[in-house]
Design goal:
alpha/beta, six-stranded parallel sheet, 2 domains, 14% strand, Rossmann fold, 8 strands
Length: 282
């Protein structure tokens, strides 16, 4: 469990904050956040996330987790108490999806952009070069984490890769799970990137955090496929205007139609009820 308290409070004079001082806000206890459908969302941008990562790696006091929140994950958490607990106990739960950015703005918070998983990974790799951060990549289909590591090392010469592992699609046995945790800890990495898909990756991170000796673990999902070049990204204009779902649905309709059409509609209805004051989510 995170050592950060999760009080149900509002942020005084939140509109006075600017996108440029969100990093400074994260230097103080209790960073600015808002709640949507019972999930805490930290109002922080990529520079603020990097600031936290840098501090946690320097301290090396325990394992800190970062969840990237989107419409699908938040909706699923309404059906899964453990997933809700996983999101709310993360040290940072940041708005990866544009709907969560828009909701933050409706709360009066100056969220300029989303914390886009593939972009966060690239920024952290570049940021950590001078500090020689060691990265471990866990997830993806066979060959994906290896290709991701090579792609990142090509983009950022000198990037230190402590290890890669592509788990089988089945559940690991207890012995296999212990072996994986031991391998990650033995790798002595600074950042563990987890790409197991949402919400599996957030549940894995929540369940394993107390056993990991890694300062920072980040659940980034599709960043593995996108930054390795094995999965197409939506054009930037679509990503920045909340239309990435349409691009992905067009490329993987059989896998994603339920996520975006059914869960998406449910999300919109629940958010409308919450803002209208007709329903409150614990």
């Amino acid at each position: 469990m995170s050592d950060r308290a999760m009080p149900d409070r509002t942020v005084p004079d939140a509109r006075a904050a600017s996108a440029n001082n969100l990093t400074e806000l994260h230097q103080t206890p209790g960073p600015v956040f808002y709640r949507t459908l019972g999930i805490r969302v930290d109002a922080v941008q990529i520079p603020g996330v990097l600031s936290c990562i840098d501090r946690w790696i320097a301290q090396r006091s325990r394992c800190h987790s970062i969840s990237l929140l989107g419409m699908y994950g938040v909706t699923q958490a309404r059906h899964d108490a453990l997933l809700q607990q996983a999101f709310n106990s993360a040290d940072l739960a940041v708005p990866d999806g544009m709907p969560l950015v828009w909701i933050g703005r409706l709360h009066g918070l100056p969220l300029a952009r989303r914390v886009y998983g593939p972009e966060l990974m690239l920024a952290a790799c570049q940021f950590g070069l001078a500090k020689e951060y060691r990265h471990f990549f866990l997830g993806g289909a066979p060959g994906t984490p290896e290709k991701l590591a090579k792609s990142l090392q090509s983009a950022y010469p000198g990037l230190r890769v402590a290890g890669v592992f592509s788990p089988p699609f089945r559940a690991l046995s207890a012995a296999e799970d212990e072996e994986l945790v031991a391998a990650i800890n033995a790798a002595d990495c600074d950042i563990l990137w987890v790409g197991l898909g949402s919400p599996k990756q957030d549940l894995w991170m929540h369940e394993h955090r107390e056993r990991l000796g890694v300062p920072v673990v980040i659940a980034v999902g599709a960043a593995f496929g996108m930054n390795s070049g094995m999965q197409k990204q939506a054009p930037a204009w679509m990503r920045e205007h909340g239309l990435e779902w349409l691009f992905r649905l067009g490329h993987e309709p059989r896998r994603l139609w339920r996520r975006y059409l059914i869960n998406g509609a449910q999300f919109i209805v629940w958010i409308a009820l919450e803002f209208a004051g007709l329903r409150k989510y614990n």
